[in-house]
Amino acid sequence: MSAETGLDRRLLAIASVVILGAIMSILDTTIVNVAIRTLARDFHSPLSTIQWVSTGYMLALAIVIPITGWASDRFGTKRLYMTSIALFLAGSALSGAAWSAESLIVFRVLQGLGGGMIMPVAMTILTRASGPQRVGRVMSVIGVPMLLGPVFGPVLGGWLVDDFSWRWIFYVNLPIGALALPLAWRILDADSPQPAQRLDLLGLALLSPGLAGLVYGLAETSSTGGVGSARALIGLVAGAALVVAFALHARRASSPLLDLRLFEQRAFAAGAATTFLLGAALFGAMILLPLYYQVVRGESALSAGLLTAPQGLGAALAMPLSGRLTDRGGAGRVVLAGLALVLIGTFAYTQLDQGSSYALLAVSLLVRGMGIGATMMPAMSAAYQTLDQASIARASSMLNIVSRIGGSIGTALLAVVLEQRLRAAVPGSHGGLGEAAGAHAGPLVAGAFATTFWWAFAMTAAAYFPAWLLPRIRRGPDAGAAERLRDAISVEG
Question: Of 266, 78, 264, whose CA–CA distance to 180 is shortest?
Fold first, then answer.
């Protein structure tokens, strides 16, 4: 096998360095969810506050994506890759040493700023090193941690929380990063910075606080008396105003932070809307699943992690098959079928009670995961079908941002709904997870989770409307496996 088509020693070494960074970034998307109840208890914080540990991380991921391309050109990919790992490690170390919920949230945002750059820069490094003949094979190598991360992340997190401390879900990144940094310095080729365009600082200044304001206002609706409360209203109105201002600016700017003109293409707009709603339903439900097993069923963090692993397993099984089906029959058909599986898998959780069958819930979660694996990647792939080659990079950034913003909003929304339901189910508990568990009101608390899962069900059902507009034609041979795998990897579970 020639060096041009085979995976030579040098290329495998580069891929190994990239995989180390990918493992840290991917695991931290799911590893924290099993620790939410422990964090709420240790910091004496309500769910509406502690959910920012996940929401703040995802918002940081979304915020940093649009500047990654500019930073790669400005500073070089090797330098930026090492900087992003160092920033991620600093955030991990500080998160592990956090002394309050507020400090942990701030450090998680710092961690997210580094983690959000790791994967895009890693993909650029691999694409340049492999060339067009080998990129598909290399992407399949780096796809392994992406497929396994959602399976092992909750299990690893549960084990660390039970047998060590919640702090180790962050400290576990330090030895991996300590290995990745010197290897990156030694193995990766240095590249010369080539500034291409100026960073849209005004767009960044409008969009970042705008998104944070919207999610903050949404979260405050639970703890401050509803949408009409002052803090919730200020957050929602200010956030919406800044996002609208960004949209107006982006339409006029020559090099905007995000190219909103992409939404003029029907396929892209449909793919983005589907991805947004799926991201909200997926990540929102991921904070509920371990909490149900811990709060209602009294399971340990490790057991909760094992019980939620079937979702990641289902996604890993379905993702390769969905890529082939997308090429053969068009993304639209695959997405509609995948959404049906997600709805079927979610329905069992809308019927939760104190004694729901673990076997039924596990099978339902496996089906839900298969639906997610058959939906997210084809929806993102379909969005590219009507775009020209020059728009692909901007579209990829936009779709990843949309997915993470959806995840942030979904997490905040379902946390708010669950806290409100717990307040109603257990009067005097103030929506606290510890109080709910100790109130001997198991059926009522289980009902609060069931009601909240109806919201995840509704968000998934709403995705059918944009999904009907996705192309249902067969993709051409040019859109090969490399693009599909890149899209899937960018979802991170």
Answer: 78
